[in-house]
Amino acid sequence: MARLADYFVLVAFGPHPRAGLLRGSGYLVLSSTNGSGEGQGQILQRFPEKDWEDNPFPQGIELFCQPSGWQLCPERNPPTFFVAVLTDINSERHYCACLTFWEPVESTQEVVCTEDAAEKEEEADEGGQARLSSTAPAQPGQLFAPKTLVLVSRLDHTEVFRNSLGLIYAIHVEGLNVCLENVIGNLLTCTVPLAGGSQLDSVEEGARTISLGAGDRQVIQTPLVDSLPVSRCSVALLFRQLGITNVLSLFCAALTEHKVLFLSRSYQRLADACRGLLALLFPLRYSFTYVPILPAQLLEVLSTPTPFIIGVNAAFQAETQELLDVIVADLDGGTVTVPECVHIPPLPEPLQSQTHNILSMVLDPELELADLAFPPPTTSASSLKMQDKELRAVFLRLFAQLLQGYRWCLHIVRIHPEPVIRFHKAAFLGQRGLVEDDFLMKVLEGMAFAGFVSERGVPYRSTDLFDELVAHEVARMRADESHPHRVLRHVQELAEQLYKNENPYPAVAMHKVQRPGEASHLRRTHRPFPRLDEGTVQWIVDQAAAKMQGAPPAVKAERRTTVPSGPPMTAILERCSGPHINSARRLEVVRNCISYVFEGKMLEAKKSLPAVLRALKGRAARRCLAHELHLHVQQNRAVLDHQQFDFVVRMMNCCLQDCTSLDEHGIAAALLPLVTAFCRKLSPGVTQFAYSCVQEHVVWSTPQFWEAMFYGDVQTHIRALYLEPSDDRVSPSQEVGEAQSQDGAPSALDVASEQRRLWPTLSREKQQELVQKEESTVFSQAIHYANRMSYLLLPLDSSKSRLLRERAGLGDLESASNSLVTNSMAGSVAESYDTESGFEDAETCDVAGTVVRFINRFVDKVCTESGVTSDHLKGLHVMVPDIVQMHIETLEAVHRESKRLPPIQKPKLLRPRLLPGEECVLDGLRVYLLPDGREEGVGGSGGGPALLPAEGAVFLTTYRVIFTGMPTDPLVGEQVVVRSFPVAALTKEKRISVQTPVDQLLQDGLQLRSCTFQLLKMAFDEEVGSDSAELFRKQLHKLRYPADIRSTFAFTLGSAYPLGRPLRVAKDKGPSFRTLSRNLVKNAKKTIGRQYVTRKKYNPPGWEHRGQPPSEDQEDEISVSEELEPSTLTPSSALKPSDRMTMSSLVERACCRDYQRLGLGTLSSSLSRAKSEPFRISPVNRMYAICRSYPGLLIVPQSIQDNALQRVSRCYRQNRFPVVCWRSGRSKAVLLRSGGLHGKGVVGLFKAQNTPSPGQAQADSSSLEQEKYLQAVVSSMPRYADSSGRNTLSSFSSAHMGGHGKWSSVRASGRSSGLGADVGSRLAGRDLLSTPHTNGAPPDSGFLRPQRAALYIIGDKAQLKGVRPDPLQQWELVPIEVFEARQVKASFKKLLKACAPGCPATEPSPASFLRSLEDSEWLIQIHKLLQISVLVVELLDSGSSVLVSLEDGWDITTQVVSLVQLLSDPFYRTLEGFRLLVEKEWLSFGHRFSHRGAHTPAGQSSGFTPVFLQFLDCVHQVHLQFPMEFEFSQFYLKFLGYHHASRRFRTFLLDSDYERIEMGLLYEERGERRSHLACKSVWEYVDRLSKKTPMFYNYTYAPEDTEVLRPYSNVSNLKVWDFYTEETLAEGPPYDWELAQGPPEPPEEERPDGGAPQSRRRVVWPCYDSRPRVQPDAISRLLEELQRLESELGRPPERWKDTWDRVKASQRLEGRQDGRGTPSSLLVSAVPHHRRSLGVYLQEGPVGSTLSLSLDSDQSSGSTTSSSRQAARRSTSTLYSQFQTAESENRSYEGTLYKKGAFMKPWKARWFVLDKTKHQLRYYDHRVDTECKGVIDLAEVEAVAPGTPTIGAPKTVDEKAFFDVKTTRRVYNFCAQDVPSAQQWVDRIQSCLSDA
Question: Each residue of 1665-1685: pLDDT tens digit?
Fold first, then answer.
């Protein structure tokens, strides 16, 4: 029996201690916002006055009686009742039932409150609280004070408390004739039966009826099972208030230990909501702060860091706003607010949705019927109490489903004297398939679940509804899942049981209690609550206590049984594990492989191993492996040979690699006994166990794993203590949680249950003996585990602290052992080993120290929890260091012997082929080459085998990093995989940590990325020590960034230059030039002689000076000093001998040869001769004094003296002043280049007034010189048209660059502002602006009218901001936005990552590559470059000169200038011309190859910036669009792209000619004979190679001499260069020709087997072989065949080029013989953009309206305008013209002529062929037509005479272009495209006639 009530207390209002101080300030005004109120509670009386021994009086009751504060009220409020809950220090809950009523303030209190009575009353009225009854008017100033009756109890009988306190209040109010002291005494002495005890055998005992002596009667029903909570209606109310989703959120929040706060204006509602939430959590008990009603004075409790469930009056909502991590449930508003920072994990699916559905069925049964056409008659809904139980039943089912099978994961560690039980969380999560589930993980880690395990894990105890449900009803619940009505029936059954538990005897639940009358609280007359007589009450209590002493003590007698375990657990949702579902076939493969290993069938095992390693990704296969291996262990030992050992270790490692630190599937647990069983003999007395090879897994350094393993083993041994020996058979690989099915042997819990049942019956000695046995068992296991842990934690080589570095967790896991996951573990393995982990500088001995500390912490924890005696624990601490030390000594011997082992047969290292002169720096380090995200190596969409991962070695040579190896996949075959790149191309080296593909071990790795788009992602083999890997890195770094440029491969190759010799430093610049190599002296005379010959041969073109020659004073102004410059080459001139040597060498440079070809001036002694030419070659920079980065000879205007150039150069960055680099042969416009302007230069000049004052001009002579210089450039050009209305670039920008954000800024900078005219007036001559063309094609060339500026200066937009127009309107500034070098570098980095990602993509798709490509913006930069270049080409073609003045003049300037020349001049599209272009513009004009290529340590920080590669990409884009215009092939561009970064040749080293002369590089090649071994120049190498093979030659080369190329530049027209993406794994990059030629195949008859000749057919893999080599094009194949036949016939083989030229000459293609010679004879289209690409080509029709498709490959030349747009093209079919009739062979002359048809027929364009042999003039419909449409026999021709236009003749053709041919039959009227072509035709026909 238990007391119903412990204490009765009377609490009344008392003044606040500070009220006296604050009375004057109006502190006592009635306030609803001030939480502290006006006063405080005072305990007037309490009964009994002495504390009970078993239950002291709770402190602070007065705060809880009035939670909102003690306040006076201006009216009588009705009495209130609620129950507050207080929790004492022992977690016992005390229920305080409070009944509050109001009494008038006594006179003593009135004195306190009189001062502000009126004001208070006003406030009260305003607040609307003066609701006094008219029947009992209160006095105007009357106030009422609260008084509370409190009942304190440890039992939760709310209704009884309400009735009892109500009775006391009724007696007082109604003035009943009942002694209050008696009633209270009876209340305090009333006892009720304990729940679930033996007292419930009869109705009378179970439903106790009590009376307090006032004619009342109450029935107290005790719950049947006290473990089930009593909820009454609280759960149903909670759902009504908040709804299903909100309650589920609160439920999850409470379970996952979040803070929950309830708000309501009703205290009873708050209490009910908290009670309801706790009821839902059953069977878990809430163990944190639980305060259903929190007083206002304690609101700071809400800031506690621990979780809580608290209720607060809604009046204090404002105070709760600042709480950031509290979930607030507003019961009155029905909302739940979850802060942003709080994440409530939801229930795992499908439980979340199932629970939601069932709850909606319970709460809203009408929902199911709402859609029925004929709904059944409405069924009565459950009562609120019943609905409450149904809702609880849903949650009870939920817990049964969540925790199903939990008892299989309990470890019973001790049985006596008290059970010690641990729960194996990892196994539970793994078996349920909920490892990833956040909710369950947090629940299992929480305090509530820990309490659940200790309370419910006990095997022998009384059971309740939950135990029955989880043990027996799980199968039913699973079966019912898809049947909602069966689920509902089950819920109702459970609800009935819960209801019966709360109301065991509903029939007797009758109450008879006196209640006060209606509105009794408003009666004015009743007296205050009387003071009670303590003595009377105490006497009643003492009397009852005396009676109770005689009675036996109330013992809670339990019906204890063995708790049923239920069926073994199943996954909550049967998930398939993707591709690793383990079929029986896979398990069979695993079993077979293991049997092969143990039977010694190693070849079979090796074949099946890859399949096994794949299968081991699945859980079942891993279990199968552990089971199978266990079968091969006898007496805890299995000795294997080396190969078997290797196989077993590999499979174990593969198993363990996927184990998380939790080992939730028990794989590591099953393998733990095996790793100490399998071993091999290394030498007599030295045995190596498998554990030394499987240490590198995170699971071994996780304390939770060891604890779970330890407890599992202890359980096994404890069970064995109490079992008969025959029963003790448990497989060590038995997984936790699986049912132990061997012969029905009892489980450990069954054994424990039986022992606990017998325990009270045993004698004391027997009990003691059992306790000692158990303690010894635990102790022996602790020793055993100390050994095991040392095995797996100490590395084989204890001098290496690497293992510990990986496991940073070992160092600091004191705190981690409570949690299941330690993030530091998972993270430390993924990072590279050089991260800061605390073990970097660990001493060798510290390895042992760390392991000892780790084991000691483990031992402390498990022994303390398992009740090991302190003496034993001390002994263990002494033992652990000895165990570790002994093991270290054993390992030293093993490590020593294992090094001597003959290596397991790994693949033989394949030596790479080396170039002549290439030497190995580091011999092969064994590595695995891993897939890097490109499809090539793994087959992919290109097809082919998975070549990667490959096993082999990496070699470091003086020139390259080379990997050679074989694929690890044995099914691929004996393919050799080669991947290499030049050391100089390395852009990034990164240390990584990766798993080796075969052993699945975690190894050090290295990722090397090169700018030639190769990527080596390597994992070092375990035999490669970290020191070797580090040495490799250091050597690589040393070779990549040599201290001296002479240490590079280009210098060391074939030279005796010793490495490491310091660079020679010149003391002053003069001597360094004078000490040029001796061969210069030899060369000087030859060179000068050659120069004169060249000059004689060259006839400069006639120069028409259209403008007036400059007047005398003008000349004076321009050349400030009149002294004569030594502009001559002759040795007799004023040059010093050393200068002459320099000069003679300079003349030999490419620049000079090209200038003479272009007619840009000569070096001559006669000034008068030179004066007639507009430009001259100036040697002013011959000593590189003006500009270090310019060549020695420069083209400058004739009128500028050399001494003025020094001043001009100061205005430009890097002194790179404008010089001419090219001149158009047709329009005579020149192209100039320079660096960007300094601020003080032209920009400053233009910013000044139009006419600078003399003072300014003198002040800034450089700027003046600069203006004069530009003026001289303009003067030296032919003048066009009048200067009134010149064109600007506006039309160009609108047509060509319209609609492209940045590029719309390419426009003229208001030159017209000086004249006051706008751009529009200057465009008056052109009414219609050309519309933007598709694909970024340039507009019609006619858009630039002859009215234009003479010179356009293209500069950076930022630099030319605010520039004033040129006052004389002779030049125009074009500001454009260009990208900088750093943007190129950033873009290239992204391009590298897009093409060679580095790690395989999660979802490889073309879209992801294209997305990365777009992000890189590389093609956008190519687009911009082409766009600017086409702009410049258009300007030059229209006759305006252009100065490109961007950045420093050596990056983008060089790119643009080179592209412009390539597009404009067909010469540069030949092999010789392209070489000249690169030598001139890139090498001589000082592109910084060393700096941009990061060749030296100085350039290392700036990184690789591929400016030249970008230029080559642009050329490649043009080549794709015009494949017949280039003599060189695409391969040539790739070759240069590869070798400009490779440092194999000296060509692309250093930053300028000046540096090359300093180094003695520039002219050495012209001196002594060079060795045949090595080419120092890339050009020389190309020449040599071109003689052997046509690899650099383009067979489709068929140029039009005068064609200017205008490529499309839109991104949509650009293609990704295959140089970036293609790869040949058979031989590595194909750009080192000597290496790419594989060993020759033996001829068929020399096959070694002597059998029949085998077929030469072979498989070609796109991802492996070089397709161009394996499958050459037809012409290459024929040339090869020809050479082979010649060698067979014993002839000296002819060079391929000679053969090709001969074939072309003899089999002349259609129209080649004369068409090229006289382009004017062809009438061609005036479409400005000649498309000469192979494939479909769009041709505009005669009026421009129709489009005709023509599959042509060529187009005739000529840019003369014509209204006709006739296709005049050569067909690819004519390549085979030699197989046609002889008619096509005799074509003396051919072209397009317009022919007048017969009478009334129109003029038509026909293709005419003049055949001298047959004496015919034939005509065809068009060029490719093979069928002749008509023949004019020349024998019949009488005369050829000039003709006149007739009706319908072409309008735009000159009259002189018409001619007639008169025959004996008729007169033919012809029209040529222009006058010269007409003359040509007339001459040819006359010639034929005269020949005849």
Answer: 777 777 777 888 788 888 888
Helices and strands, counts by H and E, the chain: 63, 44
Tens of pLDDT, residue by residue over 1344-1373, are 444 578 889 998 887 766 555 566 667 888
Beta bridge partners of 1010: 986
Q: Cα dist. 209→198, 206, 217 in Å?
A: 18, 9, 7
Tokens 């230990």 label which residue?
257
Closest CA to 1628 of 1591, 1662, 1660, 1665: 1665
**Distance set, CA 588 to CA 608, 621, 733 (Å):** 11, 9, 19
* Residues with Cβ within 8 Å of residue 719, at least 6 apart in sequence: 412, 728, 730, 747, 748, 751
Q: How crowded is residue 237: how many other Cβ atoms within 10 Å of its Cβ? A: 21
> Contact 402/352 with Cβ under 8 angstroms?
no
Contact 412, 424 (CB under 8 A): no
User: Which 3 state secondary structure label does DSSP give 327?
Assistant: strand
pLDDT band at 662 (very low <50, low <70, confident <90, very high): confident
Asked if residue 1219 has pLDDT above 90, the reply is yes
Asked whether the predicted pLDDT for residue 1746 surpasses 50, the reply is: no
Please count the residues of the chain. 1892
Pick the residue with more confidence: 1337 or 1030? 1030
How distant, in Å, are the alpha carbons of 518, 1005, 1077, 1491 from that of 1581?
117, 37, 23, 24
Q: Are 993 and 1004 in contact (CB under 8 A)?
A: yes
Check if the beta carbon of residue 1019 is closer than 8 Å to that of residue 928: yes
Query: How many C-beta atoms lie closer than 10 Å to residue 1254's C-beta?
Result: 7
CA torsion 1705-1709-1713-1717 (nearest 10°) is: -120
Rounded-to-integer distance, Cα 1041 and Cα 3, Å: 90
DSSP letters for 1016-1061 = EEEEE-TTS-HHHHHHHHHHHHHHHS-SSGGGSHHHHTT--PPTTP
Place of tokens 């105890």: 461
Residue 1484 carries which side chain, given as an amino acid letter? S
* pLDDT on residue 1789: 85
Q: Which residues, at least 6 apart from 960, have a Cβ–Cβ distance to it below 8 Å?
A: 918, 980, 981, 982, 983
> Can you tell me the distance from the alpha carbon of 549 to that of 120, in angstroms, rounded to the nearest whole number?
56
Highest mean pLDDT, choosing among 270-274, 812-816, 884-888, 1880-1884: 270-274
CB 1808 within 8 A of CB 1819: yes
Q: What's the sign of the alpha-carbon dihedral 433, 436, 441, 442?
A: negative
Residue 1470's pLDDT is what?
Answer: 92
| Eight-state DSSP code of residue 739 | -
Split at pLDDT 50, 70, 90, the class of 1237 is: confident
939 pLDDT higher than 70: no
Give me 1809's structure tokens. Answer: 């062929």
Token pair of 1006, please? 């290295």
Tokens (6 digits) for 1475: 């070489």
Q: How far apart are the C-alpha atoms of 1503 and 1706, rounded to whole Å?
A: 53
Q: How far apart are CA 1132 and CA 207, in angstroms?
A: 138
CA gap 1326, 271 in Å, rounded: 90
Q: What is the pLDDT of residues 376-429, one digit of tens each?
A: 877 667 788 899 999 999 999 999 989 988 888 999 999 888 889 999 888 888
- pLDDT classification of 557: cutoffs 50, 70, 90: low
State residue 1773's pLDDT score: 36
SS3 1220: strand
- CA torsion, ordered 165, 168, 169, 174, to nearest 10 deg: 150
Q: The tokens 């490419």 sit on which residue?
A: 1150
How much is the CA Rg of the chain, to the nearest whole Å? 51
Which residues does residue 962 pair with via DSSP β-bridges, in sequence order?
955, 980
Query: Which helix (H) or strand (E) element contains residue 85?
Result: strand 80-87
Tell me which H or E stretch contains 453.
helix 447-456
Against a cut of 0.85, is the pTM above it? Answer: no
